[in-house]
């Protein structure tokens, strides 16, 4: 049974967001945006970055945990409320971490890992279809949306926009955090990317 304090508030409920992608996709900026926003909202926040390989093309995983009090930065299997996946194979690998009833928000882009590039392995077919049968998946072509915004590197902020729709934090607060987190010269493009992502059905 959850413990309740004054006004019926549930005490020490934590939420877990797992961000997965490959090096060079901007996963770390996405985690900074989330961390800054949630801190401003008054939550205790822990962000933990795990690099498979830090160079472009290697797996990158970030855990963002927030609540009244967060004791551990790690998200275990079956504990993620939301998984934000920047690439479909990374999405597929992350499924065991998704909580029952959780949601996965994914970029439908496919990027060949080194074993596929060298011919040692094949990229799995129809990952999006397979995932849709198993979990609550919201997949979109974030690369095309980023192109529409004016910069293909804005995939991360398109996905943040899509994620924002799954929260009860007002649109304006996300915009404020973007303005203070991204480099000034990229603010306009990122605001456009966020708006496009936020309005994807």
Descriptive notes:
There is one protein chain. By secondary structure, the chain is an alpha/beta fold. Strand 2 and strand 3 (59-67) form a beta hairpin. Strands 2-3-1-4-5-6 form a six-stranded mixed β-sheet, sandwiched between helices. The N and C termini lie far apart (36 Å). Mean pLDDT is 89; it is low at 1-10. Helix 5 packs across helix 8 and helix 6 packs across helix 8. It has one domain (15-198): Pyruvate-ferredoxin Oxidoreductase, domain 3. The longest helix is centred in the first third of the chain and has 14 residues, at 27-40. It has eight helices and six strands; from the N terminus they run βαβββαβααβαααα.
Q: Beta-strand percentage?
A: 15-25%
Whole-number mean pLDDT: 89
Beta-strand segment tally: 6
The top level CATH class name: Alpha Beta
The strand line-up of the biggest sheet is: 2-3-1-4-5-6
- Poorly predicted runs are 1-10
Helix proportion: 25-40%
CATH H level: which superfamily? Pyruvate-ferredoxin oxidoreductase, PFOR, domain III
> What is the domain tally?
1
Could you name the CATH topology?
Pyruvate-ferredoxin Oxidoreductase, domain 3
Cα end-to-end separation: 36 Å
Q: What Rg is obtained from the alpha carbons, in whole angstroms?
A: 17 Å
- H/E element sequence: EHEEEHEHHEHHHH
Question: How many helix segments?
Answer: 8
Which structural class best describes the helix and strand composition?
alpha/beta
């Amino acid at each position: 049974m959850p413990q309740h304090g004054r006004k019926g508030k549930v005490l020490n409920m934590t939420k877990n967001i797992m961000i997965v992608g490959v090096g060079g996709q901007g996963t770390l900026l996405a985690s900074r945006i989330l961390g800054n926003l949630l801190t401003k909202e008054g939550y205790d926040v822990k962000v933990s970055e795990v690099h498979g390989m830090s160079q472009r093309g290697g797996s990158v995983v970030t855990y963002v945990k927030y609540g009244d009090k967060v004791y551990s930065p790690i998200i275990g299997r079956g504990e993620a409320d939301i998984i934000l996946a920047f690439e479909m194979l990374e999405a597929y690998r992350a499924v065991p971490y998704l909580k029952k009833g959780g949601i996965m928000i994914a970029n439908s882009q496919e990027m060949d890992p080194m074993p596929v590039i060298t011919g040692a392995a094949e990229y799995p077919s129809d990952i999006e279809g397979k995932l849709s049968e198993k979990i609550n998946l919201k997949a979109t072509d974030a690369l095309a949306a980023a192109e529409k915004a004016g910069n293909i590197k804005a995939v991360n902020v398109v996905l943040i926009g899509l994620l924002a729709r799954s929260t009860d934090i007002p649109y304006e607060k996300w915009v404020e955090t973007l303005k203070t987190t991204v480099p000034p010269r990229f603010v306009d493009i990122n605001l456009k990317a966020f708006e496009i992502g936020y309005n994807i059905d």
